[in-house]
Please model this.
Amino acid sequence: MLFKLALRNVKRTASSYIIYFITVALTVAFMFAANNVLLSDDLRTTDAVVRSDLGLIINIVLAVVVIIVGIIICSATAYLLRLRRREFGTYLLLGMKRGDVIKIFAVEHLTVGMVSLTAGLILGVGVFYAFNGLICAVIGSGIRPLSLMPVPSLQTLLEWACIFAVALLYSAVKLRALKISDLVTARPSGKRTPHWPAVEAALAALLLAFIVGDFVYFIDALGQVMTADGWGTDEAYMRFLISFPACTALLLAAVFLFYVCMRGVFVWRLRGKKESTFVKQPSGGERIVTCVRPSRAALKGGNVFYYRQMSGAMNRNAVMMGAIAVLLILSVMLSDYAFAQRYITLAGAERPFDIEVGWSVQRQTEYDYDLPDRALKAARSYSDTEFELLFDVCLADEPLRGELDLAVVRESDMNAMLAGAGEEEIEVADGTFYILYGYKGTVVNPDGTREEQYGYDGHIAEGETRVLYGNELAFAGAEQDGTVLRYARGSGDSGVIVVPDYIVTDAVTETYLDERVLLLNTADPVYSSAFDEYADGGYSVYVSSVYDEIDYINVNSSVLIVSALLAALIFMCISMALLSIKAMSDADADKKRYMILNMLGVSVKRQRLMLLRQLLSFSLLPVALPLLSSVPMAIIGSIICSFYLGYVHSAIIGISIAVPLVYLGIYLCYLAATYFLAEKTCIRPLERTRPRLLI
Amino acid sequence: MNILKLENVVKIYGRGGNATKALDGVSLDVAEGEFVTIMGASGSGKTTLLNLIASIDSVTGGTICVDGRDITRMSEKELADYRGQKIGFVFQDYNLIDTLTVYENVVLPLTLKNVKPEEIVARADDIMKKFGIGELSGKFPDEISGGERQRAACARALISSPALIMADEPTGALDSRNSRNLMELLRMMNKSFGATILTVTHDPVVASYASRVLFLRDGRLFNEIIKGEKTDSGFFREITDVSASAGGQDDAV
Model:
């Protein structure tokens, strides 16, 4: 019997479950898709995820999402319980046991939950393939499309089983604690929160100005440190370091407080002047009574009703709205950041040469001198080469080695490297040598002072001679280089001695060869694994392919992007669900108010417009600031992007538009559903409401 | 001039074997400035009659003319305008909007009609002073007594100067003292403002304040008495006599 009653209740109160159904279905869909993407074996076994802490990050993100969703579902379940408290109170009055009432509620809830879960899982398959497409688009051809896995799918079911169980347990505890009188005769306490509307309105305006100023200040600090000419001054850098956490924390606090203070704005808008009137006393005489009249604006149209509705709604929900706005702004920030960081880190991966392979020769007693040549041929088989250079790096002989300890490279090889890196070539005349040096590090002296060290300390005067491989060579000069030195490895990677080609003979290389280096630019991706067999023979080999790094960045960023989008979408859905549930709760209380309006001659059409205005304002308010925050986020992303890439990547602007648009889409869907339900609840022709109105 | 004219009004609920005739051919007139009460026991059809006149419900047969217009032929929008402009309603349970102050409740009908703010303020001040609720302006309905709420409801009903004020058991939720005060207020509205008032009640005390009482039983008017020069107590006795005789034969008017 209880089961039949519960099912009948579900049919009867289907409309009150719609928002709950939509939210659970959407959230299940997103979580199902995200679990299958983020927990996919294909993704987790990629080198990037294995090497990094991404696995941990993924688990943390998923856990946080589950906890937040769980809290919200508990809250929504408890709300649905409150909505029907009189009904449950009536059951108890008729002699039903509390346990049976809890069972009825549990069956109803689980029925709707199962339907929502099923719908969500079906929808989740579609969302999964959409996420899949996004991953493949971001990562590129380095990963094959992911496939649905049983374990992540089961994990989704398990998570939701836990969420429903906790929500029901929470409701059962609440129901057990309530008295029958509370359930049946529950009325508002009638107490009103004291207000200082003018103060709150002024604070709200100040906080709004502060929020704008916060963004402006941070953008300015960012612009000072990331200038068109490179990194800014140390002072600018310090200012940025301090302002980043400070501005973020202050922004979120200001947003939250703004909504708390907003509750006074509508009352402030409502209030006009204070006026005094004389009132006759029963005992004779008169006394002065002062009261605040509505403002002119409030006396126009249905504004007095609208302002009171909004002030009541803000009063009841200010804290929740503030929390929602903070959550959504964080979501916008995370989404924008996730996309921006991909392009910025990709830019950081750029280098003059796509592939670098270094065979360290000195440590071998015998070496296969042809190995690097075979590796070069093999590379050509993978892809057309746009640049290739195979060169020798030798050690200097004594006494020069003892003095400088720098590697020796032929002039033609060095100039080929410089040209490949887009730098100016150097001219080393016969009988001379040139030094290219780099930064070695900073040393802290015993007295605490810091000293920067370089590969060459400038102790040789121009024209001074040194002997290298039996040749007396005059010093032609030295120059600091930060681009190509790293490729000329050997014992002196903080600098090289560049000599005319004739100095480094075959006999010299036979004795003093330290390393052979292969540099390549390829038309198509060639990964470091392509050189595995040429790294054999016991050599100490160094292989670096920019394509490995790009893949690593793509996998990292796709995980971050999916995580950020998941969090953003779920938080938006949950936020809108909370607002809708609150609006529906208010709609229940608004029934009588709209009936009175109807009796006072407000047409059904006008009532609908009033209701729409009310709902539009109520649900748009907490979403407005997060939507608008996309503009400063876009500016911030553009500054960062310009600094690293030299231009503003279209994706930065694209995501700054796409995220608010998606939010707007979700908002409109929930608004439509809420309006539809609220209109059915509040606005009914008088013929249908007659018995209720006048009894 | 007749503000209200009902001709052969019939209201049937349900169909076929389940049909219930709530009103069976009711005809009556109410002149401008009259104070009329319709009396009857529970189930007599008096609330149904009021609902039809207020356009809350629709007739099955007959016509209802208010201020010269047949409301039974009006569209939903016209009916909304009619309710906003032509009638004022005083409910048994006041039906003040709980989120608005007393002042805001009183001026609400005028704000909805887009009357100029200056005029709204002037009319509100005047009417609230006369109703003795000026000092309650800033209070909410749950902060004032039942009698004060009913006065506020009456002020709201009267502020837009409607052609007809209808009150459905206006003293139903009040104690005897507040009931008397409210009826004195309605009388004042009728005498000082010239308001045409139509009330519905089963209480002879309340009915005795009217200038004419119509008796309804089983959906039909069966008697009518006019106060004339009688005192309230004399009229009260006459009313109770007619009510007592209502248990005998049907004597439809």
